TrEMBL record:
This is ribose-phosphate diphosphokinase. GO terms for cellular component: cytoplasm; ribose phosphate diphosphokinase complex. One of its GO terms (biological process) is 5-phosphoribose 1-diphosphate biosynthetic process. Keywords: ATP-binding, Kinase, Magnesium, Metal-binding, Nucleotide biosynthesis, Nucleotide-binding, Transferase. GO terms for molecular function: ATP binding; kinase activity; magnesium ion binding; ribose phosphate diphosphokinase activity. Pfam families: Pribosyl_synth, Pribosyltran_N. Its EC number is 2.7.6.1. SUPFAM superfamilies: PRTase-like. It comes from Chryseobacterium fistulae. The keyword Ubl conjugation does not apply.
Length: 312
């Protein structure tokens, strides 16, 4: 059983998700006073005592960088307020695409963020569907890496599709697609893409047969949606019956909404790890990850195993 009180706080841009998490968790969100200066500087102040307690700080670190800075300042505030433990709940871990030095003189942004969170005073990190699994190794503190598959697999089963095939929009997601297919008893196909620059797909080729199949593309994030839309087009050209897409994080930048609306995709399913303007496209459906995070947070607080929350 838990041996200390728990407190929940959130960053301003993640408040909608945090309120859902708090409701499932069974506690109200703690109050934070934000002082803002005319030059854009801000100061978050925890408005209640957290001395000796377990603090959960909820905030996705999508752009702008102020979201990350706000979270770091909140960690520092909790540490200086004598919290016994500080669990940082980051549904979407920003800069995760910068997980290695893939060109000369490039930074490794994900490692830098891990260092910043630890230096600020975080004692545990909880996140979901990192762009690269090895980012867990960037931390010297415990990391709970959750998977949206616990949400998506049930949704796929409820669709009750015949001739189901799981597709990966690139080679990097092949393992993820294979794992989904294993749980669903489906086949796997892979789209091989070549890029000339970020967010622009030059060529794409399909590995596998989709004739007459109901295909679901699986990915960890949708940014401009260029890759998914191109993959959907090729899948339909190769004879697919329907094409859907599922991605954990709906970044949806640039012309993403326009691209999705004009694509061959029947529907696009994402979680609310990032606020999504799903009213801008009738094809986008949002599933909440709040129950998943609330359950795991409670298990962590009560020192219980969370292994039954992992599917992939």
């Amino acid at each position: 059983m838990a041996d200390q009180l728990s407190y929940l706080f959130c960053t301003r841009t993640s408040k909608d998700l945090a309120e859902k998490i708090a409701q499932h968790y069974g506690r109200e969100l703690g109050k934070i006073n934000f002082q803002e200066f005319s030059d854009g500087e801000f100061e978050p102040v925890l408005d209640e005592s957290v001395r000796g307690g377990r603090v959960f700080l909820i905030g996705s670190t999508f752009p702008p960088a102020d979201n990350l800075l706000e979270l770091l300042l909140m960690i520092d505030a909790a540490k200086r307020a004598s919290a016994k433990s500080i669990t940082v709940v980051i549904p979407y871990f920003g800069l995760a695409r910068q997980d290695r030095k893939d060109k000369p003189r490039a930074p490794i942004g994900a490692k830098l963020v891990a260092n910043l969170l630890t230096a600020a005073g975080a004692t545990r990190v909880m996140t979901m569907d990192l762009h690269a699994d090895q980012i867990q190794g960037f931390f010297e503190i415990p990391v709970d890496h959750l998977y949206a598959s616990t949400i998506f697999v049930d949704y796929i089963r409820d669709l009750n599709l015949d001739n189901l095939t799981i597709a990966s929009p690139d080679m990097g997601g092949a393992k993820r697609a294979k794992n989904y297919a294993g749980h669903l008893g489906a086949e796997v196909v892979i789209a091989y893409k070549e890029r000339k620059k970020a967010n622009v797909v030059e060529e794409m080729f399909l590995i596998g047969d989709v004739e007459g199949k109901n295909v679901i593309l699986i990915d960890d994030m949708i940014d401009t949606a260029g890759t998914l839309c191109k993959a959907a087009e090729i899948l339909m050209e190769k004879g697919a019956k329907t094409v859907r897409a599922m991605a954990t994080h709906g970044v949806l930048s640039g012309k993403a909404y326009e691209n999705i609306d004009n694509s061959k995709l029947l529907e696009v399913i994402v979680t609310d790890s990032i606020p999504v303007k799903n009213n801008l496209s009738s094809k986008i459906k949002v599933l909440s990850c709040a129950p998943l995070f609330a359950d795991v947070m409670k298990m962590v607080h009560e020192h219980r195993s969370i292994s039954n929350k992992f599917i992939i």
